[in-house]
## 1
Amino acid sequence: MSMAAEERSARAPWALTAPALMLFVGVLLIPLAMTVMLSFHDWGQYKGIEPVFILKNWHEIATDPYYAEMFWRTFRIAILTTLLTALLGAPEAYILNRMDGRWKSFFLLVILGPLLISVVARTLGWALLFGGNNGLVNKLLMSAGVIRSPIPFMFTETGMVIALAHVMMPFMVLSVWAALQRLDPQIENAAMSLGAGPVTIIRRIIMPQIMPGVLSGAIIVFSLSASAFATPAIIGGRRLKVAATLAYDEFLNTLNWPLGAAVATLLLVALVLIVVGSNALIERRYAEVFR
Amino acid sequence: MAYLELDQVAKQFGAQTVVDDFSLSVGKGEFISFLGPSGCGKTTTLQMIAGFLDPSRGAIRLEGKDLTAIHPAKRGLGIVFQSYALFPHMTAAENVAFGLDMRGVARAEKAERVRAALAMVGLAGFEDRHPRRMSGGQQQRVALARALVIKPSVLLLDEPLSNLDAKLREEMQIELRQIQRTIGTTTILVTHDQNEAMSLSDRIVVMSQGKIEQIGTPQETYEKPASAFVSQFLGKTNDFAGTIDRTATPAQLVAGSWSAPAPAALSGPVTVSIRPERIGFGDAGLHAKIVTRIFQGNHWLFQCDSECGPAIVIRQNDGTAQPAEGEAVRLTWHPQDMSVRARAGA
């Protein structure tokens, strides 16, 4: 009797999670496994996809410097975007946290704004501001005599970083904000009573405590930027490709699915390694203090 | 001359007056408690001394100098917060050393002072521990060491013991008192716990609704409460309605069947306040019936139904026989043990 009950209670968690697990397996694991398999298949202009096991695609990615350049650009853009969001987002969160209730909710909405707007509308907005000679900002700056020729925005890495930082900002701000919420509300007064000035308080008391928030925000922003598709697709088009748009092109333009699958798989593996690695580093670094 | 002086200090938030007309002079080395229920303005007053809030009116002076003109970071006061507000990313020693860093104390002297401060609060050997890995009591000690290591002119304690369990709180009270006696730092404690205020302080400032109700030694505030609020807030008390009859000779104070020669000055309806431990059972006095009798080890607690309403009586457990539940008794007390106030609205 008790054996049966034990057996049943051991099965219960599996039974209860089965629907979610099956969905997870069905829509994520199986397609992923198929993509990985696909990356080992052969492809020819006239013969199409051949389900054989070869390393051709991987060999091509490893040896052709074109792919190295693509991946290097992808990670450079992701790193710059992460730095920009951290530099702007951390102070933004700190200021937001100190605001009065009403202003706080208003500005939180402003910060979340980019997530609520369609990526196309948002990116086109940036293009209108900066794009070519007719961009509003460029026009203003040129008529004010600050710059002589328009700042290039479309089809540039600068443009991609700016547009990506804009949409990634909420993730950084919310992550830092969560860390700020955990701060003792009296901690600044405590430091002040011991003789610390505002700069010292931020540098020695606030910064070290919100660092885990900044770093976890950085992991989110980095992985989202490195795998971002829509923003680089609109700003970079086919002239300035990153890993995600490259995979897309292989799939839909060249129709070389196996090569596209290899690019996508490599991007996924690289991201997983970077995220897991830095997460482990952060956890070890802050284990003692933030448990 | 007063060491720390608060002169008609008031604080307003919008139309709301949180602290009003607060005047107090604190002698050097004195231990003062601000005692009152939450929202009475005691913490606000402390924050004005600390400089986290500016008074709306009045002056705060330390050794004759205007304290409100000095930035909070330059006031040199030691503060222990209710939440301790320790720096979680620093070890105990780094927490304590922070104030010394800000003062540019040389490395060797700093190390020695940090060691001594931690030893004083009984945390020698805990230097490298992070606050999150310490118990509440230990964190409390680190906060105290951090506040004391800078040799503050005044030590401000904002409900420092309220997050500790009862036994630990009692231990810390004794320890806090000893440390304060040893180093002689002028100390202001904010608390809502009357036992804490009474066992620690030289003088108690009883506050209610932003105003001072009474300033006095623990004995004074307990024995001679200046208002009904003070007598109710500091320990249990019995309030009986009485009357002073000036037509009789000599004038009589009458409460039910209990009577005594009337005190001077008052007449008409009065409230008689008497502490439960000052009431005895006798042959004359207030008629009462014992409702419940509770044994509490060193004393008995009686809840009685008297002709003047419910009454509490505490008798020492001195081995004598005590009345049983349901028994009819007479309650009596010495006139010098009671305080008599004019009764409003009667």
## 2
Amino acid sequence: MAVFLAVANRKGGVGKSTVAVMLAHALSVHGGKRVLVIDLDSQCNASLILMGGHGWNEARKAGKTIADYFYDLFDGIPANARDYVAKNVGDVSAANGKPAPIALVPGSLLLEDIQGELYLKQANQSNNPEVVANRVRGRMESLIRRFEGDYDVVILDCAPGLSFAALAALKTADKVIVPFRPDYVSQLAVDRVAMLIEDKRNLDDLSSIPAEERRYACLANYVRNDDKDYMMIEEISLVHPVLETFLPQRNGIANAFDYIGQLRPIDTKYSDAAGDVKELHNEIARMIDGVVSGKNAKVAAVS
Amino acid sequence: MSKGRQLWPGDTMRAFFRAHIRRETALDDATTERLAEALNKAVNRALVWDMPEAGKDNPAAGRTSAPSNLADLAQPAERRAEANAFNPYLFSAIVVLAKFGRDGLLKRLQEIKSAENLRIFAEAQHVAIAPKLKRPEDIRKAIVVAAEQRLADRKAAAS
């Protein structure tokens, strides 16, 4: 039974793909988990970081991207979800020297077009736009869930904005990680995505949910070592649960975008940020353990 | 972009703490590791960066008096704060207001004595006050009102 982690924020440029890939590396190497990344962002940054340009292009040519997956399986055409998964991606080695167990459903530039097409297909069956939108989102949700059996953790790298795919990811996720930059504009973006995740209409209603019961946690990213940034994080913590781990501005994180096509240890890849990656892993691993315990308790209660 | 270069990478720092904890205490491995991580995190939030020298490319640095003309006032709050050796991020007006109410914020603002520093504080924290206000007491009250407005604006923007 996989744990679904979405990495989302309606705002762009907050480091969603960087964090999604960092979590994949950390959970697979430090945590020994079987990880699947589903790239739901048509910018395809996570795919480029994990496969490089050449590998991603090959996946596109072969019709093995998330857009192909949604399109092919949407109407129930019998196809194997596993065929759309690229295995052992990334340039990081596990402790045994072999590739870290990370798989990827590659992103596609066509994802937005495909979503429009699927909407139009459904629109033939109902005149109510809300019903049509719910059907598309619901179908995507069930398609995302198909990968549940093969992995310990499924990471959903969401696009900024509110596509059907992003909404389906938010609905599917056991936990949502919301990266943010510590500035005033980001504060409003975090408020909005948090209300969406918790299905609340205003900040007062959101604040009435105890922090430990929220389905999301915020992650401060690009943190400069100054009082201004820490003050901003404190302001965001007034309303939202914020992870203890902050990701500072470091070369090791900026350079981790580069796919070199050769395996290397995770500490080499992240260099001066290797400690931050471990800290983030430890905190997220505790979060995942909590989700697993909750799921097991539910199963036990049912049986 | 980074403001500086990290001098003490995470792993090196953690190893340093781990070694010292082991030498000075008889704690078990798990506790040692936890303590080393906590110290690592704490130090990471303090200053372990090689910061650009203050004043090297900042003509305002080194000046100690309050700005005396309009050109000075037009400078960003951070630069004026540096000139006054004042930290406008010492506390968050919004956080204090949310946690301790308007009286709590007014009390906390008493720590800032001069009108100029109160102005710098307001600007840096995005709580707008009228430029015509001169007396510190009036500026403090205006900061409280502006902070309340900012909290209300945030709620409105989210609804």
